[in-house]
Design a protein that fits this description.
Oligomer: single chain
Distance between the termini: 29 Å
Helix content: 25-40%
Number of helices: 9
Order of helices and strands: HHHEHEHEEHEHHEEEHEE
Radius of gyration: 19 Å
Number of strands: 10
CATH class: Alpha Beta
Number of domains: 1
Strand order of the largest sheet: 3-2-1-4-5-10-9
Strand content: 15-25%
């Protein structure tokens, strides 16, 4: 497991410079992200502590610095931490950075008011995910809240359905339409049975909505609310501009409390 974690750290670090180009960005204009509004609504944030779990290149950190008294950022890839420092410039000194896996934060037990994990709960080993969620639970004070966004495997299936219907409507034979939709939705990267994704050495977990609730409850969280992060139909999605009249694609967003 440690070997796999180290290898993934290297792969993520290698992609740090082009991360925003390779993956859907829940902070882009046009994205409806309920987590951002929820963070802004935290009362008395100026006296509270927050942790950005799997901070990556740090797109959320400027918002957190403005709102919270104490900001901690964790990522297991040192190249991601360096990219986050560069993004912040002089503000980097206002963040306590930790280079380590997200399940290794026990020294913060009982010290955090808010935890945020934006597209970072993607470890392909679900045991590591369980350990991370339990670690977050232990680190939150009574009344603390955990916000997160996780990539949705059912959204890929939704996009595949739209691509299939498009092909069928163009008169393509069903068997050929199946193959074309699978190619356009890049099914070769996915294991749909276990919700896994592999790309250029990176391995990620994609989620069903019921998995989010199940694993958060398993970690001890009792009050859980799910919403969707909605993405515009654009070049970031396969043939996105063809589907602007359809409901938007999504990732899963959650709010969990002790």
């Amino acid at each position: 497991m440690r070997t796999t974690s180290r290898a993934q750290s290297r792969h993520w670090g290698r992609h740090a410079a082009q991360y925003d180009e390779l993956f859907l960005d829940p902070f882009e204009p046009g994205v409806e992200n309920p987590i951002l509004e929820a963070i802004e609504a935290i009362p008395n944030a100026v006296s509270k502590s927050v942790i950005d779990l799997g901070c990556g290149t740090g797109p959320l950190l400027p918002r957190l610095i403005k709102r919270f008294q104490k900001v901690t950022a964790v990522d297991f890839a040192s190249a991601m931490i360096e990219a986050a420092r560069e993004r912040l410039g002089n503000q980097a000194d206002q963040v306590h950075f930790l280079v380590r896996p997200m399940d290794q934060i026990d020294e913060l037990a009982g010290s955090l008011d808010v935890a945020v994990a934006i597209n970072s709960l993607v470890m392909p080993d679900v045991q590591e995910i369980d350990r991370t969620l339990s670690a977050v639970y232990r680190c939150l004070r009574p009344g603390g809240v955990f916000f997160g966004v996780v990539p949705a495997i059912d959204a890929i299936q939704y996009q595949t359905m739209l691509l299939l219907d498009r092909a069928l409507d163009q008169g393509i034979a069903p068997s050929q339409a199946d193959r074309l939709a699978a190619q356009q939705a890049e099914h070769h990267h996915y294991d749909f049975a276990f919700g896994r994704f592999a790309f250029q050495g990176l391995r990620q977990k994609f989620w069903q909505s019921f998995e989010v609730t199940y694993r958060l409850r398993k970690a001890g969280f009792r009050s859980i609310r799910l919403e969707q992060v909605l993405y515009p139909w654009d070049a970031n999605l396969p043939l996105g501009q063809e589907f602007t009249d359809q409901p938007r694609s999504w990732d899963w967003a959650f709010e969990a409390r002790l």
